[in-house]
Each structure stands twice: as C-alpha cells, then as structure tokens.
Fold these 3 entries.
Entry 1:
Amino acid sequence: MERQGIIAAGNMLVDHVHRIVQWPERGWLAEITHSERSTGGAPLNVLLTLAKMRSHMPLQAVGLVGEDTDGDYIMAMLDQYHVNRQHVQRTSFSPTSMSQVMTDPDGQRTFFHSPGANRLLDLPAFDRLEGSMKIFHLGYLLLLDSLDLADKEYGTRAARLLAQMREKGYETSLDLVSRKGDPRYQPLVRPALAYLDYLVINELEAGEFSELPIRIENGEPIIDNIAQAAGLLLAAGVKKRVVIHCPEGAWCEAPGQPGEWVPSWQLAQNEIIGSVGAGDAFCAGFLYGCHEGWTLRKSVLLAHACARASLLCANAIDGAKSLDELTLFISENSV
C-alpha cells in the first residue's frame, strides 16, 4: 500500500504575538497595540497549515509540552484541526516552550524565546510511529537540546533519528532555526544532511551554514551565492531537493539537475501584517507538493502562495488558505 501522510516533529510552543508602535531604545517604553496567542514552532505551523489546506491527508504531531495552560492550548488546537496527537507527550519537569514575539510596523518580528520542554525531547519519543505515513519532518535543529547532543556513530542524536526514520521507509525533511553567528551550524547540521531527502531553509540559515555573503549592501539577495549554498548542501548529502527561500523568491535544486530561481509574489510593506510563521507556511506548501509528486517548480509556487497568505495575518495560522484557494491564486497570478 502506498504511504500517505506527513509527520511533523520537534519544537512545539505557544507564540504570544504583540504588535508594537515602534522598537524602543534601550531603557524606554514601547506601546503594544494588539496581542494574541497562537501555536508556534515548525511541527505545529506545518501541520495546522496543511490541515487548513483541507488536503485530507493524514497528519501526525510528535513533541513534548508541559502540564500547563499553554500545553492545554496546543492539545486543543491539534484536536480542533483533527491532527493525530497520540505522540505529543506531556511533562511536569518543564513548562511548555513559548515565545514573546514583537512585530513592528514594518512587519519585522523579534523573538524572546523560552525553550522549556523542547529541550527534553529525545529519541524514545519517536518509537512506534505510524508506519503508513510518507514524510517525516523535523524542526528545528539548533533548538532541540537533547537531539543536538553528540552521537559517536552518527555525529548527533538528530542525525541518528533521521537515519532511523529513513530506515523505516519515511522520506525525511528538515528545517533549521535562524541564529546569527551561531558556531554550531556546521557541526550540528552537517551530520544530518546525509540522512535527508528534503531540506527547506531560509537565506539566513543558508548563509550561516555556507559562510557565503547572501545580500549586497543595498539588501538585494546574491542569487549566485544562494545557488552555491544549495549546491554545497546537496554535495553534503541531501538526497532529493534543497530549497533556500527568502522574501524575494526561492532557489530550488535537485541532484543532477540545474537549479532554478522562482520569484515570489511581492506584497507592499503596508500589506504585511506579520511574518511570524511565514517560513513554516512555505515549508508546508512545499512538503505537500513533494508528498503529491509535483515538480520542483510547482511545489515551490505552492510554497510561495502559502507564505504570502501567512504574511497577511499577525500569527502563523490564521492566514492559511484551502488548497482550492491557493491553486486558484497561483493560476490567476502566474506569469
């Protein structure tokens, strides 16, 4: 029987999202004009975006949350969107991970993050997963302390996990966290690449891994360097597809094939309500295309449409659209 469905695992948290009038100087006050709560982190954002697409594919979450009100909220959201939460465990040893997210008038976000229970998520949580599922997506490396630990055989425990998932027949996918100047990009990311089918990251993460400049002084992306970074990631072991996305577009490439720059649909600055979760929305659209066997370009176009929809709302989930709405938008706006 053909495998169907996507498992998303890793960082589960609650985003407390605030819109502020301006970013204050140190020691000064900034007014909050609006606040709301939403789910955050790669697995929740990807799964709930896919659920709102009404794709009818099986969806399963794997993670660890605290025995607190934020943990209750995450469980309720998974139930609301009919995502299997059998493998979302709870702990009394640590609170649910959370972020205070400040969004300025330009739509730029700043995160104050409390790692919480995500630090404790480890290999035993991934035993006895549903064997009929097709894709296993993990996010984010560099923010899962137990899985980022060294492993004598595989390099890291995350690499061991991804190797085990491939041995069990899953296609594997990975996302990273954006941490400027973090010296762990090479030692923590490289071991995992040999056990990956899909890698979906942004240009900042690609720059940290490749150590290549990604933008020129005026802010424009250096597409040649983004392409070079994708080539380095494929050479390091990614089996099927690498996508490096940024607001202007995405470079996508597969082994043995020429890469391609796919521009995004641009929004005016005053149209962007918030960028929280836009990268995860992009990932959800891309993984849907991979799951369905779409071409690389078609998968990236859906990813762009998902990210655009996300930018029109303050949190990571409210902007998500149905697959019918997304494909209609693409058909009406493709060049």
Entry 2:
Amino acid sequence: MARIAQFVSLLGLVASVVSATRPIASVSAIRHSGRTVGREVVNADNTVDRMSCAVTLYVTGKRSDTAVLYLTDVFGIQLPENKLLADSFGRAGYLTVAPDMFNGTPAPADINASPDFNVTEFLYEHRPEIVDPVIASAIRYMRTQLRVKRIGVTGYCFGGRLTFRTLTEGSGVEAGFAAHPSFAENDEIVNISGPLALAAAENDDLLPTERRHEYEELLRSSGQPYYVSLYSGTSHGFGVRANVSDPVQRFGKEQAFFQAVRWFDTWV
C-alpha cells in the first residue's frame, strides 16, 4: 500500500509539473463560428516550384517556442471552419500556421453541389510530390521567421495522410495528430519518426473499420508512441465540419480537438 501511495503521489507531481509548464486548454478555446482572428501572410520561398515562389500561410496565436502546423482538408484555408479550428489551437497556447496547399484553388465547399468538380483530377493535381514542398516551406518559415523550436503537425482528411508523410526523420516535426485521414499508404504510416495520435469516425467510407485496424497494426509496428480514438455517431470530416447542432457530433469534434491538444502538450 505504501508503494501504491508513493506511485499515486508521483503521478500527481508529474501532472502538476506538466500543468505548470502548459496549462490545460479550457473548453472555451474551441470556437465553431464567429470571426476568425488570424492573418494571412505570403511567404516568398524560391525553393518551392509550381507556386510562383510564394506560399500563402494562415498564421494565428501568440508568439511561442512551440507551434502547430495545421494541414487542412481539401477545402483549404479558405474554409471558415479550418481557420476557426486553427484559431482554437492558438487559444490553446500554440502558435499555429496553416499553409494554402492548393494555391488558392481548393475543392468547392459543397462538392455534392458542384457536378463539374473532378475529385480524381483534383487529387492528382495536388499529389504528395506537389504538396510536400509547400509543407516544407511552411516549416522553414516557422523555424526561420517565427523562431519556433518545436512543432506538432495536425492534419484532417487530405491533410491526415500528409501528417504521416511530414512526421519523418529530419522534417523538423516532433509529433503528429491525424483526424479521419484518407488514402495514407502503409509505408507512410509505418515510417513515422515520432509519436502520433489518431481520431477516427465511426462511419467513414475513406477509413472503414478494416482499414482502421490496419492503421493500428502499422502504428504498432512503427515503434513510436501512438493513440487511437474512435468517435461514435460521427462520419468522415467530423474533426472540422461536424454538425455542431447535434450534441453527439459536437462532442466528437471538440473531444478530437482536445485529444490533439493534450497529445501536443505531452510530446511537443
């Protein structure tokens, strides 16, 4: 019993130290509507091809040594919900940078109402070898212009796959969080070089149950710390575009956000 008491006391001490270092974000950190508070900046970077040597970045939050690199879904930084969620990470204590990975031409906000939109063509035009240099440019900006020392990467849907790709040796990123990622390949998952947390939807055509189980095995094989959460009553996209008038979906979106924040609080 004495040893148990000592262990409990030690856990309390560790928790108090972590809390003193970075206070736990309150529920008020996350906003689903209203005015966005960040700013867009254009980063001239002559190492980026096909982007007219400039990448637009949405920057939000106070100056800090630790930051979040926010990789959006196909709707880009133009979607208000993406900017609002980036702002939420800013309120949680992380300087946050979201690159415009689509150079001003994201997918339409309502894909189903856009019959002329070709998903296959869009994904090809923004395949990893096109988008990876944009992400690398954003990381360089964070390191050199914002003087960030440690970075966590968070990605949603399209950006979820890129989270795995970015969390590799030498990328300058310490930890990752992916919500309902799509189209990630096995080697991209198993080759991560840092801790990764995953938030999955109960109903997700792009990450069905069988594939999610494969993700879990690949994460285990990576040898890195990992954490997987499954949110009932949610579908693909809930981490950003949940119907917050539905209390179940609202809980899923908010809890996934706090899952990411606590993960970064621990590993970044």
Entry 3:
Amino acid sequence: MANINKVEIADDVPEIGKAVLDESSVTMLDVLEEEKELEEEYAAVLGASDEKACTYAQGPVKRQALYSCLTCCPEARNDLTKCAGICLACSYQCHENHELVELYTKRNFRCDCPTERMGSSNRCRLNPSLLQPVAINQNNLYNQNFQGLYCNCHRPYPDPERTSEELMLQCGICEDWFHLHHIDGPANSQRLMEASSEMICSGCMDKHEFLQHYTGLSLKSVNNLNESVADGNVTIAEEVSVCEDNDNKLKSDLDKSISEIMNMGEADEKTDTDNEPLSKKPKLETEEQKSKCTRPIDKGNYEKGPTFWGTDWRNSLCRCPSCMLVYKKEKVEYLLDSEDSAKSYEERGMQKAAAESSYEQGIRALASIDRVQQIDVITEYNRMKDKLKDYLQTFVASKKVVTEDDINRFFSEIRNEKNVEIGVPHFCR
C-alpha cells in the first residue's frame, strides 16, 4: 500500500490527479503541465530545426536555431570576426559540454562547425566525409549576440547583476535582443509588445529609411485596440483603424481603392469578344500597375524610436521595380518573405510538434488508473525528484559538469533499487 500520510483527496478538483501533496511535493498534473510548457517552448524555438543532421550541406538556411561556441572560439569574446555559429545538431553531437551561447534563431546562416572558423581543435562529427575544415562562410553575419552580449547595454543574458525580471524582445531586422526599458519606446511599450507580431529597433528604422513611410500601419496606441490583438493577430485593416494619428493621405488612398472596386461592379454587364461578362474573368494586374509605386509618400507620422508591427505588415510593402532595388541595395529582400519572421518559424515548429504530446499521453494514462495507483505514481515521482536533487547537489558542491553518463548512472541506480524492492512482501494493516 502507498504511504498516504502526506496525501489528502480534495473534492473540489477534477477526478484526475486529485492527490494534493505537501508544499515540498507536486501533483502529477503539475508535472504534466510543466512538461507541456517545456514541449511548447521547445517546439517554438527548436521544432523547425533539425536536431540530427548538420545543416551545412543545405547552405544558408532561411531560419534555424543557432548557438555560438566560446570553447572552440575563445577569441570571439573580444573579436567579433572570430565568432562562429553552429546548428542545433552540432550543438548536441560536436560541442557537448562546451560553453555555448544560445542565439535563439538567425536568418540566412550556414553552420560554421565544419569550417576553418573552428580551427583544428574541433572536427565536425556529422560531416565525416570532409577530411579537412572547409573555407569560412563569407556571407554569414555575426553580431554581439555571438559573444554572449545583448541590447544597447551590451550585457549578458541572463544578467548575473540583475535582481529583477528581464523582459527582452528581438528586432526583426538586425536580430539583436533588447531590454524593453532600453529601447526608448513610448510609455505603453509593454502593451505594444504584447499586441505586436514584430518589432524593429530605432537603429534599423533610421538605417532603412523606407520603413518610415509605412509607420501609418504600425501599432501606435494599444488603448484603442479591440481584444483581437491579445493574441497578436492584428490585420492591416485593423491596424489602420486603430492608429490614432493615421495620416489623411493613407485614408484617402484607401477610400479611393474601395471606390475603384465598387466601380468595377458596374462593368458586369459589359462583355468581351467571347461574350463573357468581364467581371467573371480573372483581373490580371497590368504591367503599369505592377510598376506603380504604392509606398506612402508622406512619412510625417514617423516618430524616432522602435516600431511595433502587426501580423500582416510585410504584405503592405511595395513591390514595384524601384522599391525592389531599394530592398536589394539595403539587403532586406527577406522582408518580402512571409516565412522569414521568427513568428512564422515558431508556428512551423508548433505544427511539426502537433502530433500527440507527452502531456496528452500522460493525461490519458493518468485517467486509466485508479486513485490508489495515481497516489503511488505521484509518491514515486516525488521520491525520484528528491533523490535527483540530492544527486545533482553533489555536482554543484564539487563544481563538476553533469554528463549524459552521470544521468544514466543515476537512473540505473534508481532501477536497481526498485528491482530490490520487488518481491519483498509487505502487508497492509
């Protein structure tokens, strides 16, 4: 029988997982909920990246999870030209127990693990056919994140000197991370961050001046936004309606476009040479329309500082030949790619992990056993948790790195203890 001295059954909670333990313990639902949160975080950041194969052979990957190895590239701490980025698989297979800086994701980056940037001290294990390190990736871009530094304050994350929570967000262009209180944004920056899909920092807004023409479509005030922005799904039409200082020209252009669409309906009775109503034929964009620039002329709404954008803002960028040359010159053609953003990457990762999760499996398994078995499972989990905590504490005291072998040894000992207990009779009184 299970030891139920620390267990009591509550009548006001769902049938599954009714065991409530003391403050030092957790319920099985707590375990499963925590597992679910970890799975969602893993799926968002790593789900769309390959954890088994080095991505070097793929060339520059549109977006992938990356790491910077300071063990293999110690000079990178003081010299940005010495930095190197490695893919998810190489972080597991080639740089285990190394000092790695997690970079979240970067765009158009090719794994540096098989290249000369790593020197001769570390060879890529996932590319055994490469007898010698290959030439460095000339088109890779590196910023201070590869040195473990972030924001305008050039501090590490997490910052060992901070005692409060660090709220950070990533610029959609330079991909650096900024503390919310360091971006010189408006007073409601946190609400804007929660409502937006993407942020572009002040430095990038100044560097890419064409973006200043589109700030009429940015999120400028959350006070008037409806509840649909809570999940960041703000359409361009909604953004236009809520921008408190949206310029008159943009409104005029919108009214004109609607009027033109309405006038097209009057041509329904007209036919072409095939005697088919023109309104039923697909309206192809003419070369003249394609070449016409739709970028707003006035940028009077731009206020220096970071800009917060909704979900569809990239779809509003003009694609006329003149603007396309600007994007190419400033090397930001990726802004026209709907799958480039970090949000889109996260969504793909979530879809990839959409198969049944450990949380769902655990909930179903928990529902299939009776209450006494549930208590047994939870008690055993807490026993294992306490033993693991004590085991890991020895590594903290000795300042040793925990390896995969150490973890395997721990669970082997746990299994051996369990096997000893099996077959030893005990009686309930």
